[in-house]
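Researcher: Next entry: 4Fe-4S dicluster domain-containing protein (Hydrogenoanaerobacterium saccharovorans).
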Amino acid sequence: MVFYFSGTGNSQLAAKQIAAAIGDNIICINQHLKERKKETFYSERPLVFVTPTYAWRLPKVVAQWIRAMEFTGSRDTYFVLTCGDSCGNAAAYTKKLCAENGFRFCGLAPVVMPENYLAMFPTPEQAEAQVILERAKPRITALAAQISEGKPFPEMKVSVIGKLESGPVNPLFYRFSVSNKGFAASDTCVSCGLCARRCPLGNITMENKKPKWHGKCTHCMACIGGCPTEAIEYKNKSKGRPRYYIMED
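Model: Predicted structure:
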């Protein structure tokens, strides 16, 4: 069973490719996060979680969701993390999550895909993004083959910097960077409400024909990346940067 969480579409694309290759069911975590209810998932085949990398770890909202759900059947668990560059020492923290939930950790593998975190990093133009996506597809195919064959992902060597990024930097990132206070919509907003419907945490409502953020943001970039008129900005950091959004609704 393949689970995915995705803000702008990278992890959705990877999850769909993996699910098609191994012939397994696919479940979008986004909608389940909105529903906020405990559920039980049964699978005789390995569990595969495909998510973005947030501050060099599994997104906090995904880890919390996994802890809150019940999983029965197979205990073999794989993690595929999409990232703009690297996922640091994410495997060590994901391994701990597996131990908490009685999962058998079968490895974590990064897949480099187009950068979407325009609140902090430069994002690629469309042509460059397409090149990166095409480059990622063989990597995803190879990971799907390993899952299908029941082979664990090879353990990656982690640098000192990677350990620092996933270690002390991660909580500092959430404390000082993850906030919706910087988001605002300009007068080019057409009140379509897509940002509110797409927010995986139900954090956005439409008030006076413009989006209003309510404090539960996880910085998935779905709202700003998917705005059809590019009306949403994040402070002055997103101005002039290309929007990246390939999510299929």
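Model: Note for the record: The chain is about 35% helix and 20% strand.
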